[in-house]
Design goal:
- The complex is a heterodimer of chains A (87) and B (238).
- Helices cover 22% and strands 20% of the residues of chain A.
- Chain A has 87 residues and is α/β, with parallel strands linked by helices.
- Chain A has a domain at 29-86.
- The two termini of chain A are 31 Å apart.
- With 238 residues, chain B is of the alpha/beta class.
- Chain B is 35% helix and 18% strand.
- In chain B, the strands form two sheets. A four-stranded parallel β-sheet of chain B has the order 3-2-4-5, with helices on both faces. In chain B, strands 1-6-7 form a three-stranded antiparallel β-sheet.
- The longest helix of chain B has 19 residues, at 219-237.
- The radius of gyration of chain B is 23 Å and the shape is flat.
- In chain B, 30% of the residues are buried.
- The chains are: A alpha/beta (87), B alpha/beta (238).
- Chain A binds chain B through residues 3-4, 6, 11-13, 15-17, 69-70, 73-74, 76-77, and chain B through 8-10, 13, 40, 43-44, 47-48, 50-52, 54-56.
């Protein structure tokens, strides 16, 4: 997608500029997880000594219903490459 | 309420990109209800503008703020000083709010619109807005069963329906109800169908937007406020 182009379905322009992806690049992913399910699962994974890549950081929410548009936007503003919401 | 829609992001970016310090200023009344320009939408737009500026390598500070109403002076006062520290206010209030703030700032800084003000409407269901009043300044709803022929009829007919009515739909669009079909059905139910035999004369549109800017002045309220101010001044002198 070219910057400034308008997607046919939404009419929303793309803010992100396309860039070359360097070799060996790993995305930084932020996970928002519900305390009662996804975060508990991550906790259990820890107890089971299972590992996951270090480029995923988890933020525990009391419920994913707490998540707001602005939390996701702020994450992107501060440079994360992807946001993962689990709940 | 007044219904608006956010302008396309590219259009907003073109407006703001030449400035250094921009305040996205939301209004928490009508335009917040229609998810176009409330505090939340102002915050989201601010974030998008910051990301766009970072992507384009433009040095641009964007902040957001919101007040309850952009059409009365009292609500602006607490933030007046802060607002004046910016180069541009991108107002996400309706057109009334943009005009009101621009007048208030008196040319000391620009106020640009972040939304397109669309119509006076209702919210029959969440996320759906329909135009129900044209603000024509001469209401005829008592003659038409509470259904406005000025905005709900595509042709604003006063003695409808026209020949384009089609099984209750309008010839302009199949998705639009024929207002005059609705009026006749409503008046049948109300038992006032005979009122429609009275032919309505051509309208005087000067009470609408065709007669120049409109004003409403309530003299008794203004006189009362004036007296209150005088009393306060007298008491202050004592």
């Amino acid at each position: 997608m070219v910057d400034g182009a308008v997607t046919e379905q939404t009419g929303v322009s793309t803010i992100e500029k396309p860039r070359e992806i360097p070799e060996g690049w790993e995305p930084n992913v932020l996970a928002f997880a519900c305390h009662y399910c996804a975060f508990a699962a991550a906790d259990l994974a820890g107890v089971m000594r299972l590992s996951y890549p270090p480029n995923v950081k988890i933020i525990r929410l009391p419920c994913t219903g707490k998540l707001d548009h602005i939390h996701i936007l702020r994450a992107f503003e501060r440079g994360v490459d992807g946001v993962f919401v689990a709940g | 309420m007044i219904v608006g829609q956010q302008k396309p992001f590219d259009e907003i970016w073109e407006m703001v990109k030449g400035f250094k310090k921009v305040l996205v200023y939301g209004c928490n009344t009508c335009v917040a209800i229609c998810h176009a320009g409330g505090g939340k939408e102002a915050e989201i737009l601010t974030s998008l503008l910051r990301m766009k500026a970072a992507q384009e390598g433009v040095d641009l500070q964007v902040d957001h703020a919101a007040i309850e109403r952009h059409c009365e002076p009292e609500f602006f006062e607490p933030l007046d000083e802060k607002v004046r520290t910016y180069d541009l206010v991108l107002s996400t209030a309706c057109g009334v709010g943009v005009n009101f703030l621009a007048d208030r700032l008196g040319g000391s800084m620009p106020v640009y619109p972040g939304i397109n003000t669309t119509f006076y409407g209702g919210v029959p269901e969440a996320g759906f807005f329909v135009e129900l009043c044209g603000g024509c300044g001469n209401c005829v709803l008592h003659l038409t069963g509470g259904i406005c022929p000025i905005v709900r009829c595509s042709k604003s007919l006063m003695n409808g329906p026209c020949g384009g009515t089609n099984n209750g739909k309008c010839e302009v669009s199949n998705e639009t109800d024929c207002a005059w079909f609705l009026i006749v059905e409503r008046m049948k139910k109300l038992g006032t169908l005979e009122k429609l035999y009275e032919v309505q004369p051509p309208r005087d549109w000067s009470t609408g937007t065709h007669g120049g800017p409109r004003r409403v002045s309530l003299e008794h309220i203004r006189a009362y406020e004036e007296q209150e101010e005088k009393n306060a001044a007298t008491e202050g002198r004592r």
